[in-house]
Amino acid sequence: RFARARGLTQRSIYFSHALRNTLVPVITITGLQLGSLIAFAIITEQVFQWPGMGLLFIQAVQFADIPVMAAYLCLISLIFVTINLGVDLLY
User: Fold this and answer.
1) Is the pTM of this model over 0.70?
2) Residues 3, 13 contacting (CB under 8 angstroms)
3) pLDDT on residue 74
């Protein structure tokens, strides 16, 4: 209402005031959903029998291959940190 009283156009109000405030929860949920997608990739690979990193991790657990498990978990945690950094930078 005040922006309209200052003489700003409707488009300027939407893009500079409203959109900036409404994108914060959208970016947060998108970052959380990307994290969930990565976390549940193991289950998807097991259900559909797709060979990938999830299958490698499951086989490493079955054979007690500690270096492979550690490398996989470090890679996944690096991806999570990168996603969270991207979300924080977009804020």
Assistant:
1) no
2) yes
3) 92
